[in-house]
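Thread amino acids onto this structure.
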C-alpha cells in the first residue's frame, strides 16, 4: 500500500471451504463463513501480521449458489466447512 504496508490474502475471501480431488483428495476449511485477510506492517523490530475476519451477507451468497445449482457451495459459504 502507499503507506508501506502489505495486504496479504490468507485464502478465504469468497469461498471459506471447499473439497477437491486434485492433486490428492483434500478439504480446506476456515471454520467460519467470514471473509478473511491479513495486513503486514514493517516495524522497527520486524514484520507484524494482523489477521482480520470480516462479516458479509453470506446468506445471500449461499442463496445465489443454490440458485445456480451449487448446493455444495451453499453449505460451504454458510458454514466455512466442507
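Threaded sequence (82 positions):
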Amino acid at each position: 500500500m502507499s503507506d508501506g504496508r502489505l495486504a496479504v490474502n490468507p485464502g478465504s475471501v469468497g469461498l471459506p471451504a471447499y473439497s477437491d480431488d486434485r492433486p490428492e483428495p483434500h478439504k480446506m476449511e476456515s471454520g467460519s463463513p467470514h471473509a478473511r485477510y491479513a495486513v503486514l506492517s514493517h516495524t522497527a523490530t520486524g514484520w507484524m501480521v494482523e489477521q482480520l475476519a470480516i462479516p458479509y451477507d453470506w446468506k445471500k451468497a449461499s442463496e445465489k449458489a443454490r440458485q445456480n445449482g451449487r448446493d455444495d457451495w451453499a453449505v460451504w459459504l454458510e458454514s466455512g466447512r466442507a
